[in-house]
Amino acid sequence: MDQQYNLQNEGILEYSSIERYREKALIKMGTRISVLFIVLFTSLTIAFFNGPVNSLIGYIVTSFVATMLLIHLRIYKKPKVIFAIYGICGSLIALSSCVFVHDISHYVDFLWILVCTFTVYLGGYRKLGLFVLIFNAIGMGYFIYFRHNIHIDIIQEFDIAQLTGAYLEILLCLYSLAYLMYQFIDFQEYNDRQIKLKNASLVANNQVIEKQNLENITLLKEIHHRVKNNLQIIVSLLRLQKNELHSDESRDQFQEAINRVLVMSSIHQKLYQQDNLIDVNLKQYLEELIGELKVLFKNQQQIDITVKCDFPHLGLKTMIPVGLIINELVSNSLKYAFANSENGKIEIVITKTELGFNLQFKDNGEWIEKEGKGGFGLELIEVFTNQLNGTRTFETNEEGSNYLFELEFAD
Q1: 18: helix, strand or coil
Q2: Is residue 202 located within the same domain as residue 287?
Q3: 308 falls in which pLDDT band (50, 70, 90)?
């Protein structure tokens, strides 16, 4: 759990590191672009102060916006907003120039529209970037279909100064676009480097976790093996003690105690022999348990015992009390229910419910002893039923006896 928490923390820290790097890079980009725009468009304003008013207004507005955005960036350190404003304002200025300024060519404005759209995307605003893209596409369509021919009729030849200004704007567009692309590639390369480092860290951590898991599996198997061995020692001691008894009743009681210990021992044996150390194959275990009980009651080999289960596996904490309950029920039936029967049948049905599961035990025998006189075995059944927060009902008739347990899974 601690290791999983550490891995989650590392992922959060890694993501924060990428975000910090990107934010610093955006601040640097915003500062450089703003300074460049201020210097260039202020220079163009001074150089063409006596030129066309429409172009001059565009230069002045661009210089003013760049200055305000630079001040905002230095004070609030929020670069994404700057890129959004640059993209929107730049698009509005370029489209306004296309629509309202008739005496200049506008191929530079189309370049600026491209740069502005990419700027919004680079700032991290995907939806806003899509909106700006659609808005610019509609604006350029309007210019081409409704304003372009008017411009062709009005536009005059450029003098050397105007050509120089247009060329400088084109260079600035190309530089801005190249710089944005360069920074975008830098972001991608940084992310790739971080991902590679993270993958290498995850591979190393996975190797450590796999090693720990193997160690834990080995340790858990060893624990189940030791528990099984200790229970076998107890069984051996009980058998030695049983051999010294002379009373048949005492021998039977010792044999019942031995059977109960063997139920727990066999569960631990199954767990350390399989890869799954948490769950036990329910049907397979019960069939083996019933086979062992029939061996103990050799005179009841003809009894037909069937097991039906709704679900394949059961956890250790639930399996032990269920196994002990079934051990008591099957043992009692084999001892007391089929003395006068040649076609004995026992049916065990386990079905899943919303709150847990039901265990139904039926036999068609004629009991020698009544259910109310069951003694220690029935007391154990009550104890194990309570362990699983369950209830027990019992009925008997001419067709035999029927137990129904409503149980919950152990935590």
Answers
A1: helix
A2: no
A3: very high
